[in-house]
Amino acid sequence: MARASRPLPLFLAALGLLLLGATWSSVETSSYLPRLAIAAGALLLVIFFIQHAREIGYFLAHARSHAEPGPTTTLLLMAVVLGLASVVAANRLPYADLTGDRLNSLSRPTRNTLAALEGTLRLDGFFIEGSPQWELARRYLEIYERSSTKVETSLVDPDRNPARAREAEVAQAGVVAISYGQGRTKVLDLTEEAITQGILRVIEGRPRRVALIQGHGEPRLAGGGEDGITAWMQSLAGDNIEVVELNLLASGAVPPGVSAMLLVHPRRPLHASEVSLLREFLWSGGGWGVWTEPYDSLGLEPLLRFSSLRLLPGTIRDDGPLTARLGLGPWSPALATNPRHEIGVGLAGAFIVAPAVRPVMIVTPHPADLLAEPLLRSAPTATVHPGPGRGDDLLADGVQTAGVALEWETATGTDWRPTPDSLGLPPVKPKARLVVMGDASMVTNRYLGVGGNQALARNAVHWLTWQERFLGIGRQPRRSSELKVGPGGLRSLLYVIQIGLPLALVLLGAAVWLRRRAQS
User: Fold this and answer.
1) DSSP at 351
2) Torsion from C-alpha of 483, 484, 486, 492, nearest 10 degrees
3) Are 435 and 290 spatial neighbours (Cβ–Cβ below 8 Å)?
4) CB-count exposure of residue 369 (10 Å: 0-12, 13-18, 19+)
5) How distant is the alpha carbon of residue 200 from its chain centre?
6) Strands 431-437 and 287-291: what pairing?
7) DSSP for 133-186?
8) Among 214, 283, 354, 382, which is disulfide-ready with 442 (CB 3.0 to 4.6 Å)?
């Protein structure tokens, strides 16, 4: 009986061990002691209930008649029900991201990609346990696994499990290995964009082929230096795009399997036969991108004119505040992208920067089936001049268009068959796509990493090859929010929290005491 009269120490010890184990488990540790503390607390709690079953039953049976103010049994049962409901909800109910910026959710293109999976997709992260990248990888992998039942993930420390790293052919930490069917790839950047790009690569399988036109003084595919385009080509290779050099005069035809062609800063005009091949390629449903410098003689004027485009003479100059913030001078204007076009998705607020930009004009009126939209525009403070060292004549002023995107339907012919793509998306009628930029420096090694230049260059190629699902991947930049509290706000906090609330509690207690005293 003496043992039964002192139940409190055993009960408090059980609760203390449970609380210690739960708190310790929330800290990153590989020790087994937190689990041991929880097990010991649970064991003491079971012993307490067994030893004092009679007292607990007596307490529950007489709680309603002896407790004040009332339904103790009901409250205890409600607490048990709520506890069980919280456990079930944490493990069974759908996950909901209630953050304002959707920080714990994937972007729509990523969700569409996962929804199109037909088999199991594996994401295996290889990172050093305890490092900041380990925790970031764990979060990303959890979000991907939670977003689709066909995604399986694992997180491995290659130093502790070298056999698993060798099996995945991973030689270093900081890699996410992606496998889908027979496709395998590795991602080094721990971002949603990079991981989803890797998923799309293994889904696509065979890379898309893009031709880089040569023979007129253009930068070579492997040419380095500040004026080379190797960085751009490497980023395209990471997006499962195979770029090959193509001399149209030597080949006399466009190789099969080429879905788009790129022309970057030709020093000499194209031959009429090359222009004819480009026209045939466009009108058969191909994509073509042109990056040109001011006063380049391309030999493409008739073709562009037929497409309702004109390359205007002169160079854009901007003495406004936006360009001044960039610090590259007035001849390197700050160009804003069109966020309504698919190429400009995700580039809102990012400026495109390059020196010596020529204006491009969309000729109106143009055919009704021709969709022509500006991609790059300058600030209203821009003007157009002949260029540095060419005179100070004012050719135009106001907002200038420096890049455009065009799309129009083409003749399908009798041999066209509607076949779905690799993700099973419905087929579309062939259309020609054309992108013309009034500057070629933005894709060079020197300027590709400035502002949103790289994202624009990659998005343009994805759009030209009909891969819109590569566009808009990744969360939008997090909106910043600030809490500003001035002297008036601090006084309000003092009056309400430190004075008002304690005083209200004192007055409430005094009122209850006076009421009970009057009733007695």
Assistant:
1) E
2) -20
3) yes
4) exposed
5) 14
6) parallel
7) HHHHHHHHHHHHHHH-TTEEEEEE-TTT-HHHHHHTT--SSSEEEEEETTEEEE
8) 354
What is the Cα–Cα distance from 151 to 134, expressed in whole angstroms?
19
Euclidean distance between CA atoms 182 and 147, whole angstroms = 23
pLDDT mean for each 10 residues of the chain (520 residues): 58 78 60 77 83 74 57 66 66 55 72 84 91 88 88 90 87 89 84 83 82 92 87 86 92 89 93 91 89 86 85 92 88 91 81 90 82 92 87 88 90 48 50 92 92 90 83 54 64 74 78 76
150-186 burial, b if ≥16 CB within 10 A, otherwise e? ebebebbbbeeeeebbeebebeebbbbbbbbeebebb
Query: Exposed, middle or buried, 262 (CB in 10 Å: 0-12/13-18/19+)?
Result: buried
**53 token code pair:** 């079953």
By the 10 Å C-beta count (0-12 exposed, 13-18 middle, 19+ buried), 264 is classed as buried
Spatial CA neighbour of 391 closest among 317, 333, 324: 317
The most distant pair of C-alpha atoms in the chain lies apart, rounded to whole Å, by: 110
pLDDT at residue number 3: 45
Q: For position 399, what pLDDT does the model report?
A: 93
CB-count burial class (<10 Å; 0-12, 13-18, 19+) for 42: middle
Q: Residue ranges of the alpha helices (H) in 93-131?
A: 108-115
The single-letter code of the amino acid at 202 is: V
Residues with Cβ within 8 Å of 238's Cβ and at least 6 positions away in sequence, in order, are 197
